[in-house]
Each structure stands twice: as structure tokens, then as C-alpha cells.
Amino acid sequence: MKALKDILYKVSLTSTIGNMEVGVKEIVFDSRLVVEGSVFVAVKGTQVDGHQFIQMALEKGARSVVCEILPVALKEGVTYVQVIDSSKALGIMAANYFENPSEKIKLVAVTGTNGKTSTVTLLYQLFREMGYNVGMLSTVENRINDNIIPSTHTTPDPIAIQSLIRKMVDNGCTHCFMEASSHAIVQERMAGLVLSGAVFTNISHDHLDYHGTFDEYIKAKKKLFDELPKDSFALVNADDKRGMVMLQNCKGAHQTFGLKYPADFKAKVLSNTIDGLELDINNKQIWFRMIGEFNAYNLLAVFGVAVLLGEDEDEVLRQLSKIKGAQGRFDKITIQGVTAIVDYAHTPDALENVLKTIQGVRSGGEKIITVVGCGGNRDRTKRPVMAKIATQLSDKVILTSDNPRDEDPMAILKEMEAGVNPVDFKKTLVIEDRREAIKTAGVLATKGDIILIAGKGHETYQEIKGVKYPFDDREVVKEMLKMMN
Ligand SMILES: CC(=O)N[C@H]1[C@@H](OP(=O)(O)OP(=O)(O)OC[C@H]2O[C@@H](n3ccc(=O)[nH]c3=O)[C@H](O)[C@@H]2O)O[C@H](CO)[C@@H](O)[C@@H]1O[C@H](C)C(=O)N[C@@H](C)C(=O)N[C@H](CCC(=O)O)C(=O)O
Ligand SMILES: Nc1ncnc2c1ncn2[C@@H]1O[C@H](COP(=O)(O)OP(=O)(O)OP(=O)(O)O)[C@@H](O)[C@H]1O
Ligand SMILES: N[C@H](CCC[C@H](N)C(=O)O)C(=O)O
Ligand SMILES: [Mg+2]
User: Fold this and answer.
1) Where does the Mur ligase C-terminal domain lie (predicted)?
2) Is residue 206 very low, low, confident or very high in pLDDT (cuts 50, 70, 90)?
3) What is d(CA 6, CA 337) in angstroms, rounded to the nearest whole number?
4) Counting CB atoms within 10 angstroms of each CB, which of 10, 293, 447, 485 has the fewest?
């Protein structure tokens, strides 16, 4: 068992009371999960302050406490450690507890509003194809080589991150690709990790419910780059005007990718069809199975990371062209001439990109029918914007439920409807039940039409009032397309 003082190595301490040699069985930040011999870390959360639960943690057998504010009454025999920032301490303690696995692996984090899952999945698939043992932490799933570990967050809590990376190292992984959500960065879930590099995909409207303002949201992303070590790389999208902001004061090697502005990793789109993309990268013409300009960015970011990690350019491009990408991202199902696309676009920017991509690849007068909703308990400001984009860029739109969570689905739909221009009322339907909405799209479609089902991608549930009911857009689409036969 490790001693508390070793687990606190590199943590900024304010004061300590009691025996620092006390053994630590587990690090716990939720009092309900305390086991005998744990150290309880009291974290100020978004809902409650973990300091309230110190007493409960001690009753359940915690032998030491790490906190920002010491309790008024101290318990005999307990070690109390006061720190400046408990969330940060938690990350560093988790790293020490698991013996700093991120120092033994090439760890690359990807941040940005859209494209994180797509980029880390492509990286994971590419490095697997190139014969490496690889780990991945993503919204869809976590992986240690071919072993799948279900994912609960885009970026898990620090204990889960460190324990997963420990397992990766123990299983011989040389690389790990992970998503860094803005929530995770602000909440210090990334603390204690040693990164070989970080990637910035783009930034647009999302999560303002959490960050308050767009500036705060940008700052959250920038924090990842501010904290990069000297021997790492910072690879940013040169075509996103915040790309350069990420690089200000960043100690990592500055690297850029893009299609428009001068960049270290640059490409030209030669063709963009419903079957794939042809890009010119360094005077080599390569065909990829991914669709849409946004995927050109993801592919370039992946190419850049691989080259910066020392891989051979030609080999990377050869292997990348075979790869199929992440689940639920532009997933295409075609039956009887009708194409349905299931996509995780759940932000205005992503929805606009996907619809413009579909417009760009359709060959003639086919209709675009879009089924879309917005999640409950999440950023409300995006609701009217997404409805507006959907109606402006489609021939027919069915507004429906996403994950209503604790909100009234019809109230969410009203907020979406408020964004629809009067001229577009005629093409807009509101159907609360998502299955019915998807099936109605099938009824409205004729041969050649393209149906976009946006917002839930890979998700296999629909969350309503705390219950996750089984629901998979891809399965419902298959039912719908069969029904059309
Ligand atoms: C809003 C948010 O981000 N919350 C995350 C946060 O919880 P919190 O600190 O706010 O929790 P809290 O309920 O206020 O509790 C504060 C502290 O008291 C402790 N506690 C609480 C109750 C008790 O009885 N005893 C006790 O000790 C809690 O364990 C916690 O340490 O820290 C937890 C541990 O890391 C996360 O699990 C939790 O994610 C919640 C479930 C969540 O839904 N998060 C979403 C918004 C999220 O993180 N999403 C991003 C992706 C977003 C995107 O890009 O799309 C992600 O990375 O997944
Ligand atoms: N580089 C990109 N730029 C803009 N849109 C993108 C990009 N890559 C993917 N998208 C669109 O955004 C959607 C979400 O992509 P992805 O899941 O890769 O993003 P993410 O950043 O992981 O999202 P989340 O924060 O929810 O985990 C995709 O379904 C696609 O529609
Ligand atoms: N990681 C994002 C995903 C949103 C996906 C969408 N289907 C929704 O439920 O709003 C979140 O939790 O905000
Ligand atoms: Mg993701």
C-alpha cells in the first residue's frame, strides 16, 4: 500500500495535520464509494460541495482527507491535508497512485467543439492498422487494443483515466488517443497527465449553459495548450480563427493543419462525393472513405499527429485510405434507392456542415429530409439555431426529441420551432416521438432522396426522466427502410 505522502507528490499543499505515512487503499472523491482505508478528496462540484460529505466519508472508513477548507471539528487519528485546488490534487494523486502511466505511453489529447471522437477514432484505427498496441478514450467507447470498455463520459474522471492508461501500459500499448472535453479541462480531469501532444479541431457554439460565455469556453480549450510541456506538440486548425489563440503562450512545438490558410499540414480537396473524398496531400492524390470537407480536416489532423509522432508519411496515407471512421458519424444505409444517414451532429456547426456536405454530394433533384432534435438539460441557446439551419438547408424537416432528460420534450420542441423562419413553416413537421418521426421521414421519401437523422449517432438509448430506454437510430432506420419495400 502506498503512503499518503507519496500519493501527494507534486500536489501544492497549504497545510497538513496528522500522519503523512498513513497507507492509502483507494482514492475516492464520492463519499458513497468510500471503503475502509481510503483517502477522501473533497471536491467543489457543480451541484454540491464535496466538503459536505467529509463526515460521511470518515464514518465509512476513510483514514485521510484532502480538502480545500479544513472541517471545524477534526477527528482524532485522521490525517487532514489542505490543498489549494482539490480537483487538481485529485488528478495528480490519481497519477501517482497508478505510477504515472502517461509517462510511459505516447498520449495525445484532442479538443474542439466537433471532430474529437472522429479524430481519436481515426488515430486509433490508423495506429492499429500500422501494427501498434493502442488505447483510446472516447465518447463512443474506450479501448485497450481490441478490448472495448464502455464509456460513460467523453473524458472520464481522473481515477478512471489513470486506471485505464495503467491497463493500456500493462497491455503493451505504446500510444493512447483521448478526447479532452471542455468540461473535463475546466474540472481538472486532465491534471496529472503527461501529454506528447494536443490537437485543436475547431470551436463553435456549444456548452454555453456550462461555461457561461463564448470567451470562457475558448479559455477552457486554451487551458489544455497552456499546460502542454516543452517537448510536446500543439497541432491546431489554421482555418479556425481560434487556432492561433490556442498557440499563444503554448510551450509545445507550434504546428498547424488546414485547407485554406498556410499550414504545416495542408491538403486540397480534389473530389467530394457520397462515396468518399479525394485529397491532394503533399502532391499525393489519395482516396478516403470518409465524406465531407470536415472529414478532410479530421484526416489532416490525423496525418499531422502521425507524422509528428515519427511515422512515415507514405505509410500513414496508405493505411489511412483503408479506414472507415467512427460509428454514428455519417453512417450511410441505402435501401431501394433511398439513402439514410445517421450522424451525431448535435451542434449548429456540425449540423450545418453535415447538411452542406449532403447538398454538395447530391447529384440532382433529390430531396433532403432531416430529422433532428435537441437534448434536454443542455445548452438551450442552440435549439432555435439548429432548427433554423435544418429548415434552411433541407427540403423537409421533422423536429423531434433527442434525449429529453428531465425536460418536457414539447417545451424543447417549442424552443426549436421559434428559430424556424415563417417561409419555412410549410416544410416543417413536429413529431415528438423519435421513432414515429424517423418512420414518417421514410413515408415522405421517394427514390433518390436522402434522409438525415441527426443528433444521436452511435447512442443506443434515449434518456427520459433519468431512465435510459433502448433506442438506436440505426436500428430504427433499418426498420423504416424495410417498411418502404
Ligand atoms: C456537470 C458536470 O460536468 N459534472 C461532472 C462533475 O460532477 P460534479 O463535480 O459537478 O458533481 P457534484 O454532484 O456537484 O458533486 C461534487 C462532489 O461531491 C461528491 N459527492 C456528492 C454526493 C455525495 O453524496 N457524496 C459526495 O461525495 C461528488 O462525488 C463530487 O466529487 O464531475 C464528475 C466526476 O468527474 C462527473 O461525473 C460529472 O459529470 C456529469 C455526470 C455530467 O453529466 N457531465 C457532462 C456534462 C460532461 O462532463 N460532459 C463532457 C462532454 C461534453 C461534450 O463535449 O459534449 C464529458 O467529458 O463527458
Ligand atoms: N472536424 C469537424 N468539423 C465540424 N464538424 C465535424 C467535424 N468532425 C465531425 N463533425 C460533425 O460533428 C459531429 C460530431 O463529431 P464528433 O463526434 O467527432 O465530435 P466530438 O467533438 O467528439 O463531439 P462530443 O463533444 O459530443 O463528443 C459529427 O457527427 C459530424 O456531423
Ligand atoms: N456529449 C454531449 C452529447 C450530446 C448528444 C445529444 N444526443 C444530446 O443528448 O444532447 C452531451 O452530453 O452534451
Ligand atoms: Mg466526442
Assistant:
1) 328-457
2) low
3) 64
4) 485
Residue 69 φ/ψ region, left for φ over 0, alpha for ψ in the -120 to 50 degree band, beta for the rest: beta
61 is in an annotated binding site: no
| Closest alpha carbon to 383 in 395, 373, 370, 393 | 373
Which residue's C-alpha comes closest to atom 13 of ligand 3?
A: 378
**pLDDT above 70 for 485:** no
Q: Any bridge partners for residue 177, and if so which?
A: 108, 136
User: What would the pLDDT profile of 175-192 be if each residue is shown by its tens digit?
Assistant: 999 999 999 999 999 999
* Beta carbons within 10 angstroms of residue 311's beta carbon: 17
Q: Say yes or no: CB of residue 378 within 6 Å of ligand 3.
A: yes
pLDDT 10s digits, 60-89: 999 999 999 999 999 999 999 999 999 999
Centre of ligand 2 to C-alpha 205, Å, is 12
- Residue the block writes with cell 473533497: 42
Residue 202 and residue 227 in contact, taking contact as beta carbons nearer than 8 Å: no
402 lines ligand 3 (CB under 6 A): yes
Structural contact between residues 273 and 339, judged by C-beta atoms closer than 8 angstroms: no
Region 425-439: mean pLDDT is: 97
pLDDT over 90 for what percent of the chain? Answer: 88
Query: Is the CB–ligand 3 distance for residue 138 below 6 Å?
Result: no
* 311 CB-near residues (< 8 Å, 6+ apart): 130
Using CA atoms, how far apart are residues 454 and 474, in angstroms rounded to an integer?
11
Structural domains of the chain ordered from first start: 2-96 (3.40.1390.10), 98-320 (3.40.1190.10), 331-483 (3.90.190.20)
Yes or no: say if 92 and 11 are a contact pair by the CB < 8 Å rule. Answer: yes
**CA dihedral (237, 238, 240, 245) positive or negative:** positive
- Please state, in angstroms and rounded to a whole number, the distance separating the CA atoms of residues 210 and 205: 12
Distance 268 CA to ligand 2 centre (A): 21
pLDDT-derived band of residue 479, with 50, 70 and 90 as boundaries? confident
Question: Does the annotation list 401 as a binding residue?
Answer: no
Enter the pTM of the model: 0.91
- Assess whether the C-beta atom of 403 lies below 6 angstroms from ligand 3: yes
Q: What b/e readout covers 132-152, taking b as 16+ CB neighbours within 10 angstroms?
A: bbbbbbbbbbbbbbeeebebe
Check: CB of residue 403 under 8 Å from CB of residue 485.
Answer: no
| Structural contact between residues 28 and 35, judged by C-beta atoms closer than 8 angstroms | yes
